[in-house]
């Protein structure tokens, strides 16, 4: 093989790639879309992705595969999507933890404005809970007790600065009280410690505590969303109780900003139609995922609001 | 009562459910036997099918995979000295030595029978005693977990065959390796030397397969080239030309009986540890192994191919398989990666794991119980049919088999995290393993330290946070005191027993 041949081969392949890029009419039916998740299989983000995956064929004219890349605390997934061809076939599905919190605390090698939401699948409510037979069966009881004896009541909240931890920080500064923040390996450990009586209060998401609420062993104290959540309609929001703490998490599908606007629009339309379908709604109901899709613009607003909130909290927490 | 039992029977014994369970068992044994691949991975890959299949069929498939892989892990542990799954790490210690001593068939059969006994007992305890055991498990907070992990580190002595100082050094190295990555409390990166690849820590699969398998392969290759002994590790005793006599390697009743005690100890230990959220199958296997050695009539044989060692480790890891569902079913707490995957599968079937699950979904949960029990039987039959093949395979000359095993290990490790980084980690762990073998450092304690390290650190720091940095908080819990006291008692009894028997097994000075 001479140099000429190699050059020719390269030219041909470049031509064919560009040709592929030009025919946007085929997008996204040329190959499967890969939805890269920074979490392991079986988690809530993974299940949300699989709901889209189960109904995608009809609405996106292609298959959607959920691929889990949980290495390096989820950064592998983000880097993978960033390094992929910006052809719209490799997308990121995540909550704000690995994408935003980590980026604000560490040198991650990307800028937050590199990511453009295609659609938000669902909003997730951080929720505070306690044992039904404890002294803290209402938010007020907990806060009063914590004010009376600072740093004695313990709160298990998942990882440090995780989705349920940040509202706790915000609430303490808003309501002026302080507790022992106990990082746990996740919501299930927080749940185990609350049920076992080692920890007084837990912070997690509704799906973690559904079983305990159903059988009456747990009480939910409040949620950190703007509106009450469908899964726990009787639980007040923090705002209703007089504390301006609204810090929901979201599971959102992101494309890199280098993906053409035309393709991003096609993706948004297809994903929204898929998630709004009866089939997706039924799967959401079945898995306890409140599928409430938001389009690119509304998702972008939620993304930017979250970034602002996180910057404020982290500044406050780390100074 | 009878109505829902009939319904459950119809669900559990529907032909497609039985077919899926059998299919799951075969897939499970295969992925379990391939180093790096595990049942959890196969379950994760097949999870989307839960949306498509009937709930009972999906559960049959997942249960089959889980049970098959539990035993499958021991196949490569015994035949090649490579733990097929994390749970089989303790099986390597005696299983591989037993194979080198010319008894692969007996070792594999011991592993199978103890595995099935442990698994079935654990399932029965899940069915009949879930709630009381779960209530005990809930009593385990940071203080109690810390006690458990501290006690498990005393097992180093059991894993070192007399070389206690080297064992402690190896365990410390294991704990240190486990600390690379992220601080469990603050989430900050540490010990990563600025390498982003290390920010997620070192995976158990690359470390395990690397230290045991890749280093073994490197040593074998070096031996072939240099034609002299590189490692004084007993693993090198296996002679390539050793004649294998299948007739002399028959599993008989006497052999089975001699391992029964170890199996029972492993079953008890595994069931208890399995019920504790977060403790895991590998810890259960190591603790069973350690306790069985201490209470054995022939403790000096452990580490040299003792079938009791194989039985204890296998019963220990398999007995976690039913028990791991106890906190999930009783309180909705997934205590292990497997339980989390089953929890996800149940959620995808719109069954909420937790206290109300039983009454809301009586027929399907009882069908699941039935599947758990009969899958053990299928596992026994399928494995029994496959074992003669495996024990023959075990005796093929290593130079033919090892490259294939290495290839599978690399593929399996890559697949376990979709990450090339893990493959580099695997090879680095292999080099580390060669170094350790060179200096005669036992590998078991390193792996134990690596497995126990994260839990030990996290529970200690959680306990101190809850006790507001007062160290005396660590001895305030009666349960923790009981764990410490019981262990000291056990060590004293063991000391007296060995003094009575007095078998000279001095470690060489290091």
What report would you give on this structure?
The complex is a heterodimer of chains A (319) and B (510). By secondary structure, chain A is an alpha/beta fold. Chain A has two domains: 15-123 and 249-295, D-Maltodextrin-Binding Protein, domain 2 (3-Layer(aba) Sandwich); 127-223, Periplasmic binding protein-like II (D-Maltodextrin-Binding Protein, domain 2, 3-Layer(aba) Sandwich), CATH 3.40.190.10. In chain A, 45% of the residues lie in helices and 17% in strands. Chain A has eleven helices and ten strands. In chain A, the strands form two sheets. Chain A has a five-stranded mixed beta sheet with strand order 2-1-3-10-4, sandwiched between helices. Chain A has a five-stranded mixed beta sheet with strand order 7-6-8-5-9, with helices on one face. In chain A, β6 (154-156), α6 and β7 form a beta-alpha-beta unit. Residues 6-22 of chain A have low confidence and may be disordered. By secondary structure, chain B is mainly alpha-helical. Chain B has one domain. Chain B has helices at 2-12, 15-33, 39-46, 55-80, 89-100, 104-138, 142-153, 156-159, 164-179, 204-226, 253-275, 281-295, 307-318, 320-323, 326-331, 337-348, 357-360, 362-394, 398-417, 420-438, 443-466, 478-501, and strands at 181-182, 189-190. A two-stranded antiparallel sheet of chain B has the order 1-2. Chain B starts with a helix and ends in a 9-residue tail after the last helix. At the A-B interface, α2, β2, β7, α7 and α8 of A face α16 and α21 of B.
